[in-house]
C-alpha cells in the first residue's frame, strides 16, 4: 500500500495521509471500544486523514497481509464508528 | 606514459590525477582502476583485518578491494570503488587501511597473527579486563576509510516521476525490452548503471541483425531517443517497494550533483545482468587475480591489458571465447584451466580447446588453480588436476583470470516482494516472477547466452507495455550470433588442506575465508544469516555482490547440503552505497522543514532575540540585551513582568473557530467541562481528554456569540487538535450543523502582562476601549476596532499577573507592539514565560505528557462536574484512583539554593533505586529567589515530605521539599486585581 485513492483528490502518495486508528470491532463497552481489537489477517478497517491534501477523513478497508486496499470511502458516509 | 589507448569509453584527451601523492596521466573516460592498471599499478589497498596487499579484482560495483578515498579531509569521500570512479583532472586519490604508506605498512604486522584472527576473534579475545579497555585501540585499526567531516558536494536533486515501463539495465536484454516497449507506444525510462549503454555487448564479438554489437547498440539508442524514451546513464536502480522504485545517480568526481529519482512505473523490467563469481583457492586475493569478465571489460572499454601472460580458470564454455578475445588484444594465454573433465565438457568447449591447443595454448580439462604465488603480485599459478590435487605444477604468469559462473542480480525483484529459486543449469538463484507488473529478463534471469537474453528482453518489453495498455504488433526478436550457452558445471573451491583454507578468500572485503566459514559452522552458526553476522560475509560496500553466493555455496558444501537448502542472506537496499547527502536531497539545514514565523518575527530578529523552534514555529527564547544566556536573560525578563510589566508574542497560539447551531453541544463533548454554559463575552479554561481518559491539551475557550466559539490550543498541539476536532465532526458528529476553521494565522496575539498593563493599554487604545478596560473581569473579553481593524481584548493570565491578550489582525500587530514598547513595556521571551507559569504552577507539555489523568493534575473538580465528554467513561477506571498514581506537586530545594533540573528521578532516600516520582519542570524563580519545580510524585508522599533528586548524568543531586504546585501568589490576588 503506497498510494491511497482519495475520493476528492484521486490517487495520492501514502505520505500525504495520516493513519488515525483501527476501528473498534471487539464490543460496545467504552473499554472494548478503546482498547480491544479483533485482529484479522485479511481485513483491517481504519480511519485515515488526507492531512496534506484536502483533509478528508477516510474509512479504509485493507488486507494487512498483502497491503491491498479493498475499499476507500469518506468516513462521514458510514455509520458511526 | 605510452601511446594513447583505444577503448569504447576513452577519448584521446588526457588528464592528470594523483594517487597516494604520485601524479599519473590518464585519458578522459578512464576510471581510477583502468588508469592505474594501465600505469602498471597493481596494489590499490590493504584488507580491513589482515592488512593484506590488495589489487582491483573486478570492473564494477562488486569491487571488494580497490576502495579509494577521493579528496582530502575534511571533505574527503571514502570507500569509492576504483572501478566506479570516473577520473577528472586534478583528482586526488588515496588508498585506505594502511599506515604510514601502502607499500610499507606497519599494521601489516597483523598478518603475522592472522592464524589466530578467525571469525569472532576480537570479541572472544579482548574480554579481560573488559572489552571497553581494548575497544579504542581496536576501533582505530578497524573500519573502512575515514568518515568525512563535511561535504563539498553540490546539492543533490530529488525528482518524483512516473512512466509506463521502467527498464533497469541497458545490456542486450534491457535494450531489447526498452525497444519493444517503446515501439508499442509505451513511455519508457531506461536506467543504466554504467556511463554507456550496451552491457556485455561492449566486449562480445557478437552480431545482431547482421550488424556488429556496437553498431546495433548505437542504432537501438538512436531509435529509443526518437521514440521519446528517457535513457539515464550513470543511474542505478538502488531499491524500491510497493511500486515506487528509486534510481540513484552519484559518481564521485562527477561534476554534476547527485540525483535521486523516485519513479512509479506501470510495469518494471529488471534486466540488471549478472555478477561473475570468484572461485576460492589459496591466496586468491593477491594483486593480479581478476574476474575473467573484468579483464575483458578493461580491454574493450579502456584498452588495458591486465597482464601479459595469463592463466584462465573457469568452469564453463565462455572461457574459450574470452581467451580468443584476450589473445586478439595482444595478451599471451599461458593456460586455460577448465574444472570440467573432458567428458563433462560441451562439444563446443572440446573443439575450442583443441583449436587453442593446436596454436600452442595449454588447455587443461579437469584442472584447477590450487594457489596463487607471489607476495606483492601474482608471479605464478599452482595448478593441479581436480581429481588429484597433489600433482601440482607451477605456471608462470602475471595474472590469473577466474570465472566461477554468474550470479544474477535479483536485488530489485526480491526487494519488491519477489521470491527466488535455484536454477540448476546456472547453479545460481534467479527471481520468481510472481507479480504481473515485474518481469526479469536476460542474464538477471539466468539467460546468459546472447540470443536468449535478447528474446527474453523482447518478450519482457512487450508484456510490460501491454500492462500499461500499450499493445502493438511488433515483437520480432533480433537474430543474433553471440556467446552461446555456457554449459556451466558448479565449482566453488579448489581442494586444499584445512591450513590452506585460511587464505582461500570468499569475501575479500571482510577477509572472510573458507576457514572462517568452517569454524563458524563448527561453533553452531548454521543459518546463512547467522554465518553472515558472525563472519561479516556480505557486509561492506559491495553488499555480498562479490562473495555472497560463493560463501553460501561453500557453506552448503561444508554442511553437506544442496545450495538451495542454504539460500543466501537477504539482499537489502540500497543496491550500492548511497550517501546520506543524496538521500537528504535539499532537505538540509534551514531547508529541513518549513519555518512558520509570526508577524513580529523581523522585529524580534532586529532586536536581538535568540530564536527557538517550537514545532515549525520560530519564537523568541530571550532577548540578548537582557543577558548572554537564556537563564540569565529569562530571570531579568520575568522579574520585570512582576514589578512593572512586559509583552510577549503569543501569535503561535493555536486558534480554532467553531461555529454553527450545534457548536456549543459539540464543544461540550470535546471538553471535560461544558462550553455551553459560557456566556457570550466570557471565556473559560478548559481541558480535553483523549478517548482513553488521559489529558490531551488545555486552553481557553471564548464564546464570541451564541453560535461562535474560539478555542485556543497549545502551540505545539495545534495540528493535532484540528485533526482531533475534525475527526469527531466527520464521524460521530457527521450530522451536526457545525464548521471548524483553523484561524491560527488570522490573528496575531500580543500578551500584555504585569501591574502596569491596564494603564498602558488605556493610554494606547482609543476612547471606545476605556470603558471595556475598566469593566473587564478576569476571563472577560471585549471586541472592537483598533486602527480600523478587528481587535479582541481578553483579560486572561498565564503569568499570574494582571494581563490582557490582544488578538489583532496581523496587519496592525507590529504597530501595536511598537506602541507598547514605546509606552515602556519590555518584551520577554519563552524562557521568562516558562519561569512565570512555573511560579504559578500552570501546565505545559512537560506536564501534559500524555500519561497524566485529570486527577493526577489536580483537576478533580472538573471531573466532578459530570460532563459526559470524550474520554469521560474511561476516567472511572479504578486504577486511576489508586494510591501509587502520580500527583502534581511543587518542589523547593531543601537548602533554599541548590539547582535541580527537569527529568531527574525522585527517591525517598539517597540509596533507594525505586523512584517515587520525577521532576517535570524547573526554573530559578526571581520572585522567590530560589530554584522551584513541578513534579509528579506518588500520592503516598505527603506535602512537606523531603525527597532526593537523583540526576546521575548531570550530577545535580540534592534534596527537595514537596510543596504546593502554586509557588507564587497562591490566592491569585495579583491576577484578579
In short:
The complex is a heterodimer of chains A (81) and B (977). By secondary structure, chain A is mostly beta strands. Chain A has one helix and six strands; from the N terminus they run E-E-E-H-E-E-E.
Write the layout of secondary structure elements.
The complex is a heterodimer of chains A (81) and B (977).
Chain A: E1 3-6, E2 10-13, E3 18-22, H1 30-35, E4 44-49, E5 57-62, E6 69-74
Antiparallel strand pairs in A: 1-2, 3-4, 4-5, 5-6
Chain B: E1 14-19, E2 22-27, H1 32-38, E3 43-46, E4 53-55, E5 67-70, E6 77-81, E7 91-94, H2 121-125, H3 131-141, E8 157-168, H4 172-183, E9 188-191, E10 207-208, E11 211-212, H5 213-226, E12 230-232, E13 236-241, E14 244-249, E15 259-270, E16 274-276, E17 289-291, H6 292-302, E18 309-314, H7 318-328, E19 332-338, H8 347-358, E20 362-365, E21 367-373, E22 380-385, E23 393-396, E24 399-403, E25 406-408, H9 411-415, E26 419-423, E27 428-432, E28 438-440, H10 450-467, E29 480-481, E30 505-507, E31 512-513, H11 514-522, H12 528-535, H13 548-559, H14 563-566, H15 580-584, H16 601-606, E32 609-614, E33 617-623, H17 630-643, E34 646-649, E35 654-659, H18 663-670, E36 683-689, E37 695-705, E38 708-713, H19 718-730, E39 739-742, E40 748-753, H20 757-764, H21 767-775, E41 781-786, E42 789-795, E43 803-808, H22 810-822, E44 826-827, H23 830-840, H24 860-864, E45 886-893, E46 905-907, E47 917-925, E48 930-938, E49 946-950, E50 958-963, H25 973-976
Parallel strand pairs in B: 1-7, 8-9, 8-15, 9-12, 15-28, 17-24, 18-19, 18-24, 19-20, 34-44
Antiparallel strand pairs in B: 1-2, 3-4, 5-6, 5-7, 10-11, 10-29, 13-14, 14-15, 16-25, 21-22, 22-23, 26-27, 30-31, 32-33, 34-40, 35-38, 35-39, 36-37, 37-38, 40-43, 41-42, 42-43, 45-48, 45-50, 46-47, 46-49, 47-48, 49-50
Helix pairs in contact in B: 4-5, 4-10, 6-7, 7-8, 11-13, 17-23
Amino acid at each position: 500500500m503506497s498510494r491511497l485513492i482519495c475520493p476528492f483528490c484521486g490517487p495520492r502518495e501514502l505520505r500525504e495521509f495520516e493513519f488515525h486508528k483501527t476501528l473498534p470491532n471487539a464490543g460496545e463497552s467504552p473499554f472494548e471500544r478503546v482498547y480491544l481489537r479483533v485482529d484479522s489477517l485479511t481485513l483491517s478497517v481504519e480511519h485515515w486523514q488526507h492531512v496534506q491534501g484536502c483533509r478528508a477523513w477516510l474509512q479504509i478497508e485493507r488486507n494487512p497481509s498483502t497491503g491491498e486496499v479493498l475499499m476507500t470511502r469518506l468516513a462521514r458516509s458510514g455509520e458511526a464508528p | 606514459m605510452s601511446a594513447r589507448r583505444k577503448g569504447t569509453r576513452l577519448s584521446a584527451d588526457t588528464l592528470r590525477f594523483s594517487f597516494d601523492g604520485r601524479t599519473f596521466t590518464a585519458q578522459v573516460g578512464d576510471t581510477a582502476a583502468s588508469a592505474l592498471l594501465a600505469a602498471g599499478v597493481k596494489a590499490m589497498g590493504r584488507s580491513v583485518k589482515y592488512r593484506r596487499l590488495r589489487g582491483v579484482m573486478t570492473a564494477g560495483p562488486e569491487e571488494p578491494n580497490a576502495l579509494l578515498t577521493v579528496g582530502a579531509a575534511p571533505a574527503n569521500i571514502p570507500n569509492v570503488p576504483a572501478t566506479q570512479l570516473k577520473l577528472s583532472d586534478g583528482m586526488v586519490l588515496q588508498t585506505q587501511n594502511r599506515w604510514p604508506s601502502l607499500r610499507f605498512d606497519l599494521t601489516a604486522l597483523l598478518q603475522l597473527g592472522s592464524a589466530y584472527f578467525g571469525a569472532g576473534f576480537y570479541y572472544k579475545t579482548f574480554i579481560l579486563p573488559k572489552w571497553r579497555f581494548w575497544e579504542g585501540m581496536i576501533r582505530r585499526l578497524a573500519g573502512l576509510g575515514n568518515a568525512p567531516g563535511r561535504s563539498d558536494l553540490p546539492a543533490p536533486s530529488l525528482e518524483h516521476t512516473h512512466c509506463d515501463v521502467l527498464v533497469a539495465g541497458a545490456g542486450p536484454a534491457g535494450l531489447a525490452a526498452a525497444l519493444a516497449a517503446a515501439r508499442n507506444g509505451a513511455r519508457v525510462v531506461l536506467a543504466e548503471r554504467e556511463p554507456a549503454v550496451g552491457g556485455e555487448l561492449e566486449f562480445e564479438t557478437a552480431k545482431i541483425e547482421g550488424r556488429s554489437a556496437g553498431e546495433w547498440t548505437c542504432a537501438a539508442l538512436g531509435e529509443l531517443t526518437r521514440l521519446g524514451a528517457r535513457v539515464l546513464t550513470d543511474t542505478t536502480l538502488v531499491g524500491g517497494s510497493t511500486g515506487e522504485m528509486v534510481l540513484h545517480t552519484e559518481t564521485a568526481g562527477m561534476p554534476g550533483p547527485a540525483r535521486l529519482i523516485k519513479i512509479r512505473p506501470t510495469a518494471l523490467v529488471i534486466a540488471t545482468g549478472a555478477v561473475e563469481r570468484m572461485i576460492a583457492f589459496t591466496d586468491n586475493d593477491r594483486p593480479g587475480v581478476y574476474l575473467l569478465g573484468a579483464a575483458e571489460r578493461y580491454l574493450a572499454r579502456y584498452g588495458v591489458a591486465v597482464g601479459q601472460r595469463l592463466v584462465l580458470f573457469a568452469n564453463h564454455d565462455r572461457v574459450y571465447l574470452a581467451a580468443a578475445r584476450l589473445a586478439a588484444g595482444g595478451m599471451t594465454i599461458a593456460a586455460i584451466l577448465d574444472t570440467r573433465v573432458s567428458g563433462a565438457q560441451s562439444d563446443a568447449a572440446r573443439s575450442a580447446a583443441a583449436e587453442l591447443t593446436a596454436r600452442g595454448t595449454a588447455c587443461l580439462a579437469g584442472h584447477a588453480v590450487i594457489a596463487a604465488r607471489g607476495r606483492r603480485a601474482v608471479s605464478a599459478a599452482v595448478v593441479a588436476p581436480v581429481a588429484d590435487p597433489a600433482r601440482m605444477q607451477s605456471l608462470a604468469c602475471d595474472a590469473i583470470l577466474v570465472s566461477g559462473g554468474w550470479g544474477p542480480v535479483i536485488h530489485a525483484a526480491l526487494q519488491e516482494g519477489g521470491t527466488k529459486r535455484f536454477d540448476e543449469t546456472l547453479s545460481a538463484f534467479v527471481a520468481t516472477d510472481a507479480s504481473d507488473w515485474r518481469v526479469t529478463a536476460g542474464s538477471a534471469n539466468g539467460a546468459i547466452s546472447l540470443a536468449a537474453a535478447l528474446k527474453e528482453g523482447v518478450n519482457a518489453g512487450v508484456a510490460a507495455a501491454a500492462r500499461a495498455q500499450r499493445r502493438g504488433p511488433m515483437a520480432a526478436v533480433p537474430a543474433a550470433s553471440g556467446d552461446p550457452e555456457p554449459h556451466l558445471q558448479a565449482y566453488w573451491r579448489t581442494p586444499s588442506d584445512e591450513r590452506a583454507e585460511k587464505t582461500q578468500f570468499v569475501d575479500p572485503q571482510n577477509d572472510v575465508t573458507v576457514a572462517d566459514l568452517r569454524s563458524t559452522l563448527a561453533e553452531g552458526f548454521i543459518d546463512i544469516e547467522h554465518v553472515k553476522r558472525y563472519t561479516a560475509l556480505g557486509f561492506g560496500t559491495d553488499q555480498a555482490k562479490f562473495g555472497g553466493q560463493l560463501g553460501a555455496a561453500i557453506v552448503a558444501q561444508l554442511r553437506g547440503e544442496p545450495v538451495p537448502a542454504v539460500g543466501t542472506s537477504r539482499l537489502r537496499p540500497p543496491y550500492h552505497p548511497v550517501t546520506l547527502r543524496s538521500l537528504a536531497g535539499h532537505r538540509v539545514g534551514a531547508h529541513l522543514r518549513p519555518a512558520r514565523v509570526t508577524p513580529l518575527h523581523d522585529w524580534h530578529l532586529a532586536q536581538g532575540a535568540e530564536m527557538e523552534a517550537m514545532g515549525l514555529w520560530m519564537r523568541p527564547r530571550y532577548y540578548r540585551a537582557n543577558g548572554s544566556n537564556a537563564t540569565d536573560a529569562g530571570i531579568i525578563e520575568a522579574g520585570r513582568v512582576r514589578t512593572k510589566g512586559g509583552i510577549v508574542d503569543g501569535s503561535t497560539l493555536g486558534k480554532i473557530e467553531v461555529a454553527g447551531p450545534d457548536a456549543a453541544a459539540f464543544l461540550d463533548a470535546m471538553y471535560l467541562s461544558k462550553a455551553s454554559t459560557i456566556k457570550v463575552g466570557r471565556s473559560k479554561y478548559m481541558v480535553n481528554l483523549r478517548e482513553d481518559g488521559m489529558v490531551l491539551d488545555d486552553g481557553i475557550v471564548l464564546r464570541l456569540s451564541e453560535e461562535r466559539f474560539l478555542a485556543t490550543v497549545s502551540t505545539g498541539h495545534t495540528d493535532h487538535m484540528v485533526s482531533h476536532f475534525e475527526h469527531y465532526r466527520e464521524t460521530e458528529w457527521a450530522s451536526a450543523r457545525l464548521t471548524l476553521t483553523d484561524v491560527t494565522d488570522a490573528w496575531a496575539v500580543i500578551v500584555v502582562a504585569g501591574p502596569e498593563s491596564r494603564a498602558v493599554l488605556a493610554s494606547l487604545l482609543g476612547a471606545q476601549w476605556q470603558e471595556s478596560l475598566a469593566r473587564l473581569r478576569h476571563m472577560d473579553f471585549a471586541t472592537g476596532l483598533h486602527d480600523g481593524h478587528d481587535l479582541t481584548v481578553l483579560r486572561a493570565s498565564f503569568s499570574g499577573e494582571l494581563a490582557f491578550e490582544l488578538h489583532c489582525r496581523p496587519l496592525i500587530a507590529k504597530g501595536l507592539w511598537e506602541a507598547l514598547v514605546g509606552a515602556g513595556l519590555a518584551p520577554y521571551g519563552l524562557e521568562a514565560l516558562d519561569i512565570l507559569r512555573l511560579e504559578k504552577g500552570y501546565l505545559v507539555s512537560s506536564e501534559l505528557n500524555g500519561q497524566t489523568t485529570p486527577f493526577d493534575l489536580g483537576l478533580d473538580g472538573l471531573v466532578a462536574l459530570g460532563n459526559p465528554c470524550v474520554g469521560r467513561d474511561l476516567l472511572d477506571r479504578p486504577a486511576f484512583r489508586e494510591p501509587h498514581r502520580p500527583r502534581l506537586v511543587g518542589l523547593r530545594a531543601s537548602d533554599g539554593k541548590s539547582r535541580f533540573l527537569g527529568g531527574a528521578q525522585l527517591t525517598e532516600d539517597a540509596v533507594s533505586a525505586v523512584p517515587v516520582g520525577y521532576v517535570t519542570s524547573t526554573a530559578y524563580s526571581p520572585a522567590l529567589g530560589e530554584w522551584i519545580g513541578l513534579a509528579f510524585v506518588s500520592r503516598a508522599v505527603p506535602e512537606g515530605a523531603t525527597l532526593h533528586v537523583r540526576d546521575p548524568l548531570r550530577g545535580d543531586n540534592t534534596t527537595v521539599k514537596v510543596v504546593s504546585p502554586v509557588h507564587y501568589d497562591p490566592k491569585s490576588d495579583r491576577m484578579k486585581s
